[in-house]
Amino acid sequence: MYHLFYKRKELTDEEEQEVCKKCQFCCRYMIEPLNADHSRLEFLKAWGGHRIVTDGENVYSIKPFACKQVTDEGCKIYKERPYWCKQFKGGDTSNVWIPFCRLYEPISEDEKFEMLKKMAPPPLGIGPD
């Protein structure tokens, strides 16, 4: 589950706004949950234009679909943007966004190892004492 290997960057509100303004992934791509069987996933893969991802529990389709309000400089209606846009926080909203959200960064190999050690079950106690 790839989202386990990212952490949120420590940024001020101003820095976060700059990162989002430069990235705009959330505003340029649509991520939709797929309740699809194997044949539907094969179809989408063959059709192209989609990227199929999972958060370990659900399957999603990512496709280019830019909001008509987004420009290279940012959102044309940022101060009057819809409620959903104000509430949406990329990777904070859903784990499936994390690898694409620049508010997150991959954790180091040492951090991965320590995290996985904490998640591992205790030893079984099998063998000589």
Give the class from helix and strand content and strand pairing: alpha+beta
Proportion of helical residues: 25-40%
Cα-based radius of gyration, to the nearest Å: 19 Å
Total helical elements = 5
Estimate the strand proportion: 15-25%
Strands, count: 7
Per the principal axes of the C-alpha atoms, what is the gross shape?
flat
The major beta sheet can be summarized as: 3 strands, antiparallel
* Order of secondary-structure elements: EHHEHEEEEHEH
The quaternary organization reads as single chain
Spatial strand arrangement across the major sheet: 2-4-3
Number of domains: 1
Mean pLDDT over all positions = 81
Describe the structure.
A three-stranded antiparallel β-sheet has the order 2-4-3. The protein has a two-stranded antiparallel sheet with strand order 1-7. The chain contains five helices and seven strands, in the order βααβαββββαβα. It starts with 5 loop residues before the first strand and ends in a 10-residue tail after the last helix. The protein has helices at 13-23, 25-28, 38-47, 83-87, 109-119, and strands at residues 6-8, 29-34, 51-54, 59-64, 70-71, 74-75, 104-106. By secondary structure, it is an alpha+beta fold. It has one domain (12-116).
